[in-house]
Amino acid sequence: MIDIHSHILPFMDDGAADVDAALAMAQDAHNDGITTVVATPHHANGVYMNPAPDIEAAVRLLNEKLQEAGNPLQVLPGQEIRIYGDLLDDLEKGQLLTLAGSRYILLEMPSSRVPRNMEEVCHELIIQGYVPVIAHPERNAEVAENPTKLERLTELGALGQLTAQSLAGTFGSKLQKVSLDLCRRGTIQVIASDAHDSSNRPFGLSEAYEVVKKQLGNETFDFFLHNSRRIVANEEIIRVNPVQSGSKLHRLFGFFSRKG
Ligand SMILES: [Fe+2]
């Protein structure tokens, strides 16, 4: 499995506190069946600033430590970028990181609302050839209340990235319900851990994928799994979630049977 969103780099943000903590997280990731992790420290979220060169240096160092420790996990550079005023300018100046150097860029909204300029920012990024990946939309109060807010962004070409623990039910049944609903609406294209540590916010991807298989079916499981791989490989992802196309067909047949 490939994980496109994690806070595994030490000394960066509220993720791994030091090198030992990062190595322990890496061991958890390996044990969970993860082969590649994109490190995405918070950037410009009002608390943490993590410039691209610092992240790249920390990724190099962690990969060296992993080799020394005999852990085959591969760590790639990324950034979880809060929507902020100079985002587009800074991206143009080459100061921001996409996911593993791909066209996919991980964006974070505030938890309480969808920023007023969100559609504009996504639209501008898409025009420039980027694909915005919206981190954990299920944890945004406005999206949870009104999923069409996310639908508008995915219709523009953005992707929704669900957090594994939200789907697994670790954050409570309400958040799990919102997560499954967003999947069924076709607004989620990828799942990631957003791991911060080994205890409270671990990787747990395999557990989330079990829920996907059980609740949404094997086709959706494959869809999520392959999309993570395609993002890291900078390939075009598949946008239509099989569970969505299934439900559309279901609605269509429901319509005909009602007519009949
Ligand atoms: Fe995160």
From TrEMBL:
This protein's record includes keyword Phosphoprotein: no
InterPro entries: Caps_polysacc_synth_CpsB/CapC, Pol/histidinol_Pase-like
Keyword annotations of the record: Hydrolase, Protein phosphatase
Keyword Ligase: no
EC code: 3.1.3.48
Catalytic activity: O-phospho-L-tyrosyl-[protein] + H2O = L-tyrosyl-[protein] + phosphate
Pfam families hit by this protein: CpsB_CapC
Gene Ontology terms, MF aspect: manganese ion binding; protein tyrosine phosphatase activity
Family affiliation: Belongs to the metallo-dependent hydrolases superfamily. CpsB/CapC family.
Protein name: Tyrosine-protein phosphatase
Organism: Paenibacillus borealis
Taxonomic lineage: Bacteria, Bacillati, Bacillota, Bacilli, Bacillales
